[in-house]
Each structure stands twice: as C-alpha cells, then as structure tokens.
Amino acid sequence: RFVAAGDCRSHPERWALVAAAIEKAQPSLLVFNGDLVYDGRNDELWDSGFFTPASSLMKHVPFYPAPGNHEFEAPAYLKLFYTPADREENANWAQAVGPVLLIGIEGAQVWTEGSPNYKWMEGVLAASKEKFIFLANHYPAWSSGAHGKGNERPMLQMRNSIMPLLAKYHATALLAGHDHNYERNEPPAEIGVTSITTGGAGAPGRGKSAAGAAGNPYSKVFAAVLHYCLFEVDGDKCVMKVYDLDGKVIDEKTFVARKP
User: Fold this and answer.
1) Least packed by Cβ within 10 Å: which of 39, 54, 197, 201?
2) Average pLDDT estimate for 156-180
3) Which are the contacts of 78, defined by CB distance < 8 A and separation ≥ 6?
4) pTM score > 0.70 for this model?
5) pLDDT above 90 (res 156)
C-alpha cells in the first residue's frame, strides 16, 4: 500500500493539505516525483516549504523521492534523503518491496540507449522477478499540459528511450510529475506502458494546453486538482485509486501482475 505524488513546491499551505490527506490514507511508503521546493539551492526552503508542512506525515511514513528540475541539483538534496542507491552521490535508486519493484531516477540525466544509465536500468529490469514495476521520475513521456509541447530533452528521453525499455520488460507504469495536474496516458503496448502524471501536491495548478493536448493522443483521464495516487497490491492485482482532497476518486485502474 503506497502513495505516489509530486510537485508540492511554492505553496506550503497547499502541500500541508495534501500531506494530511496522504497521512490519513495510511500508506506504507510515499514515492515523490520531484519539485519538492521552489529552489533546492535555498536551504531555508527545505524546512519552511517542505518538511514543516508535512511534519506529521514525515515522522512515520518512509519517503523515497526522485529529483525534479526545481531541485537544481542542490547538494542538500542528496544529504536530506536516504534512498537505496549504490552511493550517496547517486540520485538513481531501485528497491524491491515485496511483490513490487520501485525505481527512482533523475530524469534530466542522460538516458539514451547505450548510455551507462540506460544499461544500469536494463540490468535492474532484466533481473527483476517482482510482479509489478513502477518507475518514478519527474518527467512524463506525454502530457496534455504546458510541458507537453514535446521539445524538452528529458521528456523526449522518456518517450523514445525509457518507454520502449519499460515495455520490453513488461513494467507496470511510469510515475511522473512536472505538469501540475493528474493525467493517465495509455500508449499502445509496443511503444510504452501506462504513463501517470501526478503533479498535484501543491504547486500552482495547470490545465490543458492546446499544444500539449494536440501532441498527446494517449490521454484517458485529466484533472487539474490537488490529489494523490494510492496503490494497493493484493496477490496478482494492483489497484490504483486517485483521490482529490474531498476524498472523491477521480481515476481508478487495476493492473495485473506481469510475466517476467
């Protein structure tokens, strides 16, 4: 039972509301898709903008982040968060938790086919025996929002390199943020897996953009609201329910166990 969320930067009062809702859901783990604060190089913001608004949640729920563009590769980031990477200086990590393999990456790094990062990820995927695989990073493969114009290098990497790799190993879904909304994209199986944008943890809300919507033929559900995604694994099923702050389910999907 874990939660995915992202993009709480700039509005700690809104992040406090989302954090309280996540805590009420009683997850075993929180996976966060970046943009924790407006500028990660400003040390004071880590306290006032992130930890203090979520102080109760952070006391007892394990937290694995993937960095976003607003972290600005700040040295403080890797000091503040412990993740199961091979060394402290590495923002890329992988962790099996029961039947689920979670992978978190710095999506702005080089992930093109043949790169060291790509080879590392393929090795992790190839060795996995888990029933479900989720990749968390900040950048979606497709988006109907403001970042969906299609010319951002990290998003192009997600689309052209990472998505085919996830599809090859029958991964469950990509978890991303960057655009401040919820969106579920369902590309054909031969080019990718379910792509979920969960960027509604408090950052300024964004609706669809004309360019983004025109370039995203795979969108199934879109909502520009504060929200979080709750995943519950039971046997060969993983049920995702996406909640707004009124407790309304704005999307739901059941994933079935993959065949390694």
Assistant:
1) 39
2) 97
3) 88, 89, 91
4) yes
5) yes
The Cα–Cα gap between 64 and 58 comes to 11
Tokens for 257, please give them: 């166990």
| Strand order through the sheet with 219-223 | 93-97, 100-104, 132-136, 173-176, 194-198, 182-185, 219-223
Joined together, the tokens standing for residue 76 give 């403080």
pLDDT in tens, 229-247: 999 999 999 999 999 999 9
SS (H, E, C) the chain: CEEEECCCCCCHHHHHHHHHHHHHCCCCEEEECCCCCCCCCCHHHHHHHHHCCCHHHHHHCCEEECCCHHHCCCHHHHHHCCCCCCCCCCCCEEEEECCEEEEECCCCCCCCCCCHHHHHHHHHHHHCCCCEEEEECCCCCCCCCCCCCCCCHHHHHHHHHHHHHHHHCCCCEEEECCCCCEEEECCCCCCCCEEEEECCCCCCCCCCCHHHHHCCCCEEEEECCCEEEEEEEECCEEEEEEEECCCCEEEEEEEECCCC
What token pair was written down for 44? 């004071």
Q: Report the C-alpha gap between 95 and 103 in whole angstroms.
A: 6
- Chain mean position to CA 253: 16
Q: How does 212-248 read in b/e, with b if 16+ C-beta sit within 10 Å? A: bbeebebbeebbbbbbbbbbebeeeebebbbbbeeee
66-120 pLDDT, tens digit each: 999 999 999 899 999 988 988 888 999 999 999 999 999 999 999 999 999 999 9
Length of the chain equals: 260
86 or 172, higher pLDDT: 172
